[in-house]
Design a protein that fits this description.
This protein has 401 residues and is an alpha+beta fold. It contains 10 helices and 10 strands. Helices cover 50% and strands 14% of the residues.
């Protein structure tokens, strides 16, 4: 383990899991990540290795074949995986959010049907909330479900679906006015549907099309797609939790733990950037000595390491708060906000330390420089996090006049 970002108070089992994942990252991910990323190639061999390690079932209860571990354990594993290649952590994250939503909100039949196969990695999860004109305004969702006998007919277009092509189970948030009178608040007339599909692109089941991968600046390898529903028929027993109108709350619960995940990714990418920067600074010489001996570079390294430590501490705190059963939207918002901003800054400082070589695709820091911006918008922008934080602070510090 590196000296930075240590987590105290872990059990022997947690330490063993995190250490195993770190070894896997060092041996199986870091050596091939940049080459695969440049080819925008799905890392099938890496995913198969994570499946063998049981990572797809890390937080799924033991009764369903999972490891039954905590959010903290999961976040620490994500931190290690993102340190190797952030795209791989995205493949795991969307699967994890769907499994979490099933565990927390699914009917017994839904849990029995999906969780054992998700724990084994046989069913891969993805979740779909955003739309082309949506952004952060979830209440503006236009995709709709209409009841038709024992089924619902879904129509609409969704956007930014991670694992859109490779997933076989998608949790989709749509409007469902059935049972909700006109004038009902938008967030009370949304429903999450569990949509099963075949992997791949094109029409993956009648009424459901995955057009293809979206070409992105970074975050390559993982397939990010649109999802188009045109007369998609879904059985009523695939309404998450069995009751309509609860989808917004179910999704927000999933996104809340997803924010801890994004914070963990920011920590992992920042750690890797620091490792690359501090190593290069000791190898590169100017004016007759390694640049690490120049005070200006030492100041940068000091600032980078402090940011890595601070982000890690906030991420761990948010995960432990959720694990305790307490409300953690304040802590998760703070952790996501700080970790993503600090990640961007640490990566940029490592890029500056590399000088002109940081602009070359031969150096790993070039990839990190393109990946870090995604964390600024994933699971809610900095502005959204600050809104959440500000509102929660006003609740906690309400002035009694």
């Amino acid at each position: 383990m590196s000296r930075l970002a240590q987590t105290h108070g872990l059990t022997d089992v947690q330490q063993e899991i995190v250490s195993t994942v770190r070894d896997f990252v060092d041996k199986e991910i870091i050596p091939v990540a940049t080459e695969l990323e440049h080819r925008d190639e799905y890392p099938q061999q890496i995913v198969d290795g994570l499946k063998e390690l049981g990572l797809f079932g890390l937080m799924i209860p033991e009764e369903y074949g999972g490891l039954g571990e905590s959010l903290l354990t999961y976040a620490l594993c994500v931190e290690e995986i993102a340190r190797g290649w952030m795209s791989v952590s995205g493949i795991i994250n969307t699967h994890f959010i769907v499994a979490y939503m099933l565990k927390q909100h699914g009917t017994q039949e839904q849990r029995d049907t999906f969780l054992p196969r998700m724990a084994a990695g046989e069913v891969r999860g993805a979740f779909s909330m955003s739309e082309p004109a949506l952004g952060s305004d979830v209440s503006a969702i236009t995709s709709k479900a209409v009841k038709d006998g024992d089924e619902y007919v879904l129509n609409g277009q969704k956007m930014w679906l991670t694992n859109g092509g490779t997933s076989t189970l998608v949790a989709v948030l749509v409007r469902s006015d059935e049972g909700h009178p006109e004038g009902t608040a938008a967030h009370k007339s949304m429903t999450t549907f569990l949509v099963e599909k075949e992997p791949g692109f094109g029409e993956v089941r009648p009424g459901l099309t995955i057009p293809g991968k979206i070409d992105k600046m970074g975050y390559k390898g993982v397939d990010t797609t649109e999802l188009i529903m045109d007369g998609l028929r879904v059985p009523a027993n695939r309404v998450l939790g069995g009751v309509t109108g609860r989808g917004f709350y179910q999704m927000m619960d999933g996104v809340e733990v997803g924010r801890v995940n994004v914070a963990a990714r920011g920590c992992g990418v920042a750690q890797r950037a620091f490792e690359l920067g501090v190593r290069y600074a000791q190898q590169r010489q100017t004016f007759g000595k390694p640049i690490a001996q120049h005070q200006a570079i030492q100041f940068k390294l000091a600032e980078m390491a402090t940011k890595v430590e601070a982000a890690h501490a906030m991420m761990v705190n948010a995960a432990r708060k959720k694990d305790s059963g307490e409300r953690n939207d304040l802590e998760a918002g703070m952790a996501k906000y700080l970790a993503s901003e600090y990640c961007k800054e640490v990566v940029e400082d490592a890029f500056r330390i590399h000088g002109g070589y940081g602009f070359s695709k031969e150096y790993e820091i070039e990839r990190l420089y393109r990946e870090a911006p995604m964390l600024l918008i994933g699971e809610g922008t900095a502005e959204i996090q600050k809104m959440i934080i500000g509102r929660r602070l006003l609740e906690e510090y309400r002035f009694q006049g």
